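> call design_seq(struct)
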């Protein structure tokens, strides 16, 4: 989604049919605006925290060995998609914002759509985690997902997200020149097509949240009923211990989903407002866009902090690396 909406300093560029900028669209030789400096500082901080945090989470899952669960596999995939956002999407967006696209048109078509792909992978992974918890807790007598099925599901998520989001976007991207500045920019057949595509992408990012909320609502209700049944059991009984472990895991996963929603929805709303209201890109609007975009990328750095604060299993897995 971060690459789906135009976040460059100029909200629209008057290009001609050849993909070259008209004279009035040329970038003036001026100093970097204040909001861009603010963006560079925030993005650098997010990158540092998120990069090391997600690497540590992936390392912690690997340290679990055969003790890995389906939830661990999905959480590792979530960390992988967050890491990809920070390593690829964030620098690509920042590079185009502050400088010029240094690569060719093929790289433009390959790397630029990956921001939407990583976002789709994240939301689909969160959905898979919610469905896994639902199947395990709400319908315990049905066959549970095993680790092999979870790995297959992860592969299917990546392939489907790339085919559904990445491939269509790559066809509309072109490398255009504005004096000595090159920009990777989407070209649409019409405004209607562009708006439909952006609404479609926003729906992919937000509609699964309703399914996730339903799953966790049912999970919480099921855990509450079981807890009432076993409330008279000894605190150190095996049943009570397992129930408490499930409760803590579900609590952590719900907080991850809440953090994802809080970080994502403001940017989606802001970008759609820019698209459908024709709001001019004034300095104050640019600052607001940088703020919500920073919040969007911050989600990739928040998840590792939540995991390390709320999960003893991940903290134990990190001991070999001195964390």
């Amino acid at each position: 989604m971060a690459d789906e909406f135009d976040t460059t300093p100029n909200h629209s560029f008057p290009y001609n049919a050849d993909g070259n900028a008209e004279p009035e669209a040329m970038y003036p030789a001026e100093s970097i605006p204040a909001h861009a400096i603010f963006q560079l500082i925030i993005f650098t901080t997010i990158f540092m925290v998120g990069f090391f945090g997600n690497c540590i989470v992936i390392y912690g899952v690997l340290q679990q060995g055969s003790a890995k669960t389906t939830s661990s596999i999905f959480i590792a995939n979530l960390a992988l998609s967050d890491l990809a956002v920070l390593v690829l999407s964030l620098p690509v967006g920042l590079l185009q914002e502050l400088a010029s696209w240094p690569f060719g048109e093929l790289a433009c078509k390959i790397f630029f759509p990956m921001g939407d792909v990583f976002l789709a992978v994240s939301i689909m992974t969160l959905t898979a985690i919610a469905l896994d918890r639902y199947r395990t807790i709400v319908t315990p007598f049905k066959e549970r997902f095993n680790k092999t099925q979870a790995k297959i599901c992860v592969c299917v998520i990546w392939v489907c997200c790339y085919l559904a989001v990445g491939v269509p976007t790559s066809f509309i991207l072109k490398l255009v020149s504005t004096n000595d500045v090159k920009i990777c920019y989407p070209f649409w057949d019409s405004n209607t097509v562009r708006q439909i595509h952006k609404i479609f992408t926003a729906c992919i990012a937000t509609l699964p949240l309703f399914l996730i909320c339903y799953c966790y609502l049912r999970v919480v209700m099921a855990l509450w009923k079981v807890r009432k049944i076993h409330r008279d059991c000894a605190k150190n009984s095996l049943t009570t211990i397992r129930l408490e472990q499930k409760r803590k895991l579900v609590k952590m996963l719900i907080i991850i989903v809440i953090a994802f929603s809080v970080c994502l929805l403001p940017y989606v709303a802001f970008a759609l407002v820019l698209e459908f209201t024709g709001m001019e890109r004034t300095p104050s609007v640019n600052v607001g866009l940088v703020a919500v975009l920073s919040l969007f990328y911050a989600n990739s750095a928040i998840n590792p902090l939540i995991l390390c604060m709320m999960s003893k299993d991940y903290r134990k897995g990190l001991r070999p690396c001195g964390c």
